[in-house]
Amino acid sequence: MYIKIIIFSMLPITELRLSIPYFIIFEKLDWMTVVMLSVIGNIFIGFIIFYLIAPIMIFLSKNRYFKNIINYILDRTRSKSSLINNFKALGLVLFIGIPLPFTGVWTGSLAAYLFSISKKRVILAIVMGVLMSATIVTLLTLLANEIWLNLINDQLNKKFGIFQ
After folding, report:
1. How far from 52 is each of 22, 25, 49, CA to CA, in Å?
2. pLDDT, tens digit (0-9, with 9 covering 90-100), for 2-33
3. What is the dihedral of CA 66, 68, 70, 74, to 10 degrees?
4. 0.90 cut: is pTM over it?
5. What digits encode the pLDDT tens for the residues 27-77?
6. How far apart, in whole angstroms, are the C-alpha atoms of residue 2 and residue 34?
7. Residue 66 CA to chain centroid, in angstroms?
8. Rounded to whole angstroms, how far apart are CA atoms 114 and 108?
């Protein structure tokens, strides 16, 4: 089950925004374990993208078979990550850390490579951004789950006349 948490947190688009709520709410696992493993998986994929996938994509963008699709991805990344381009490492922390659609470690790591941010700053920014995102998602998950459970209990109490 622990490997599953790490793998879920490494998926593009959803990242730890899916793994944390899913494993806390639906799989009923300990939230600290889920957060720790999700953070590990999300940081790991950020480093993989920055050090391996981004250079491979740049290389493949010169190949006539891959050129169009790779350039589309790179152009989209550049256009969606002006925060990173303008504020460099701080922008990268915020881009990764604020869990909004189409932001996160996948796009952020690729953008960091494209905008030539230093490796030391990228490592620190990825770690800080992932920790920030994990904190926000965990707090929202725990709070929303508690509110939801209270709402369900209230509705059941009203329907069946059970008062606590």
Report:
1. 29, 34, 5
2. 999 999 999 998 999 999 999 999 999 999 99
3. 160
4. no
5. 999 999 999 999 999 999 999 999 999 999 999 999 999 999 999 999 999
6. 8
7. 26
8. 10
